[in-house]
Amino acid sequence: MNSTVVSSPGKVLVAGGYLILDPAFSGVVVSTSSRFYTVVQPRTTAQPNTIQVRSPQFANATWNYSVSLDGERAVNALPENASQNKFVHLALKSAISLAAELKGVSAVSATLASGLDIGIVGDNDFYSQRAKLASLNLPRTLQSLSQIPPFCPTDGSLSNVHKTGLGSSAALITSLVSALLVHLEVIPKAAFAETEIPTEGRLLAHNLAQYVHCLAQGKVGSGFDVAAAVFGSHLYTRFSPAVLEALMNDDSASTTSLLPTVSPSNPGWDYRIEPFVLPPLVRIMLADVDAGSDTPSLVGKVLQWRKQDPDRARGLWTAIDQENQSLASNFAHLTKLHDKDPEVYGAAVKYLSTLQPVQWLANPWTPPEEVDITAAFFEAHRITQSIRTKMREMGELSGVPIEPTEQTDLLDACMSQAGVIGGGVPGAGGYDAVWLLLCDPVDCSPDQRPTERVERLWGEYSKLNVSPLSAIQSKERGTRIENLDEVPGLQAALST
Ligand SMILES: Nc1ncnc2c1ncn2[C@@H]1O[C@H](COP(=O)(O)OP(=O)(O)O)[C@@H](O)[C@H]1O
Ligand SMILES: C[C@@](O)(CCOP(=O)(O)OP(=O)(O)O)CC(=O)O
Fold first, then answer.
1. Which residues, other chains included, contact 238 with Cβ-Cβ below 8 Å and sequence gap of 6+?
2. Same domain for 236 and 307
3. Per the CB 3.0–4.6 Å rule, which of 107, 206, 457, 489 could disulfide with 230?
């Protein structure tokens, strides 16, 4: 049997942090061009029913497992493994159990007859490249990032790697679970074709990945990161945790049937995915900012404040949600304006790229056909600024650094650059990252491109150490099937 290669993207929660935990609200999730890749191959010299998983970007990151399919099904980590990986282990267990349920034990045995070799790598963006750039004596620019080999080793172990917040565990679990389901013939490769309506196979992979991710994290979160890894950019409304309750509390999970819970026909999966993409000629730019924050502790404090001050919280969350929804409809409106007349839209974006947002509405000579486009871009700026103000207010009320002063200063400096539409702190906020939306015209000459202006600002910024990520928005619908030879550097990374 041939190899199976599946990739899943990372995410940025641009709007809807905290609110997304409540099904009454939704969040704007952008999936990234940065992906996790899982490569499943038969081994040639191994024992039957053995699985080796390798993460060549890390030290001590090979895990061997033995699978027993007769009687009680089990996937056991071998005692000689140098470390444990709960995420990987639970993904193997669950995908193999589901395959045995759906395809029968003998079919799974046949696929495992000579053992499996699984390689996992993540794009460099998932892990901070700050130290690497410094060691190569390279400035912190997009150009420098492109000089680092793909899937570069991190010179450390998984437990002390500096993550950038793109959601490594969700992208990893989703690509691993999906690759196993395809390799074990539970779902066909075609399930991951670009379809308007998600296929049954994609929905099944989503449900199983959500379950595994919750189990590995020991809690049922909103699940937007797994949803982005499966479906790509979208407006996300969470599922009720009740759907996973029974399995999460089940100590005998190895004997319990998974299908009734993870089946796409289980009405308990009440999450909603609404289509969403960034408007044309708009680029997202992400930065890894020094000093990470601890999402669970931020989340705990905000939720506690919400309980203690329910009226104020309700008012503020409703107001934030209105702006979040406006942002999504504003982007849809911009896309429509583009489709109506791409040329005029392109000219407007080129012009806006030369001015700070505060100047966008001030030009009395704006050509009449560009007035609506300019106004819509200014509205995107206004909304993102308003969301920031309200998120800061929530931070003050709950005593949590959602947008700490250091980040406020950095973001304000970005907002004063020509062609920057808006920005914020992704997800739960804190000190560790910022996102920006920039005008990204086809040609900006003779002016500098907004991306270049921002790179320069970040490079010279002395109050914080700011390093760009290379990610842009992924326009693909989330998880996809890959060809091993067509992903630059993948084959080489796996043979190290
Ligand atoms: N490249 C990788 N190979 C194997 N496991 C990985 C890899 N990257 C992340 N993981 C798994 O994901 C876990 C990190 O999860 P978590 O702390 O929730 O991170 P995140 O916030 O990025 O989702 C690691 O402990 C490991 O089990
Ligand atoms: C607060 C949240 O709504 C969003 C947190 O988003 P982040 O993008 O900050 O998440 P992590 O990758 O887990 O750090 C909690 C949630 O939805 O799980």
1. 20, 21, 22, 23, 222, 223, 224, 271
2. no
3. 206
Q: Is 229 in the pocket of ligand 1 (CB under 6 A)?
A: no
Token digits for 160?
């002390």
ipTM of the complex: 0.96
H-run or E-run covering 316? helix 310-340
Beta bridge partners of 122: 36
Cβ–Cβ < 8 Å for 436, 260: no
Hey, is 286 helix, strand or coil?
A: strand
Contact between residue 186 and residue 263 where contact means Cβ atoms under 8 Å apart:
no
> How far is 455 from 466, CA to CA, in rounded Å?
9
Segment 195-250, tens digit of pLDDT: 989 999 999 999 999 999 999 999 999 999 999 999 999 999 999 999 999 899 87
Atom 13 (ligand 1) nearest CA = 169
Residue 292 pLDDT more than 60?
no
Strand partners, 433: 288
Residues 257 and 297 in one domain: no
Nearest by Cα to 316 from 263, 390, 265: 390
In the reported structure, the alpha carbon of residue 85 is separated from the centroid of ligand 1 by a whole-number distance in angstroms of 8
- Ligand nearest to C-alpha 431: 2
Q: In the structure encoding, which two tokens stand for residue 188, read together?
A: 């066909």
Q: Are residues 350 and 392 in the same domain?
A: yes
Q: Which atom of ligand 2 is nearest to the CA of 19?
A: 3
What is the overall mean pLDDT for the chain?
Answer: 95
**373 and 227 in a common domain:** no
Q: Which two tokens stand for residue 423?
A: 């920005």
Domain, as residue range, for 356: 282-468
Q: Within 13 A of 178's CA, how many CA atoms are on the CB side? A: 37
Closest residue by CA, ligand 1 atom 17: 169
CATH code at position 290? 3.30.70.890
pTM: 0.96
CATH number at residue 182: 3.30.230.10
Atom of ligand 2 nearest to the CA of 166: 12
Q: Which residue has the tokens 């479906």?
A: 231
Q: Whose CA is nearest to atom 11 of ligand 1?
A: 169
Distance CA 346, CA 144 (A): 28
Ligand 1 neighbourhood includes 162 CB (under 6 angstroms): no
Q: Which pLDDT band holds residue 38 (cuts at 50, 70, 90)?
A: very high
> Is 36 in contact with 175 (CB distance < 8 Å)?
yes
